[in-house]
Design goal:
- β1, α2 and β2 (about 40-50) form a beta-alpha-beta unit.
- The model has no long low-confidence stretch (mean pLDDT about 85).
- Strands 1-2-3 form a three-stranded parallel beta sheet, sandwiched between helices.
- It is globular and about 45 Å long.
- It is built from six helices and three strands.
- It is of the alpha/beta class.
Length: about 120
Amino acid sequence: MDQFTHTPFASVRRTIDISGDGTNNAGRDVATVRDEAVAKGVTINGLVILSENPMSWNPDHTNPPGGLDNYYRNNVIGGPGAFVMVAQDFNSFGQAIISKMIAEVAQARQPLPRQAAAR
C-alpha cells in the first residue's frame, strides 16, 4: 500500500498481486491488511502455487485445511473482481502468471462501478 502513495501516476484501478506457495508466515495478519487495502479501493488478486511436499516443520503452511486456494479466497484476495488462480506446481508458474495478467487486462476493459467512474 505504501508504494501507491509514492507513485507519480494516477489511475482509476489499483491492484496488488500476491503469489505464494503457502500461508502467511511473517508480518501482520493477512486478513486485516487485506481489509485495510480494500477499504482504500484496492483489489487484491492471488496466484497460488501448489506443492505436494509439505514442509516438515509446518505441513499446514503449504497444505492448509481446505486447500491453499481456499485459504487465499478466505484470507488474501478482496475488492471488486478479485480472483484466485492456481499454478499446479512451480513449473507451471510462468504460464499461470501470463493467464492472470490476461484476466486482469480483460477485467480492466469492463465498465467501472459508478463510484469509481465518478472519480
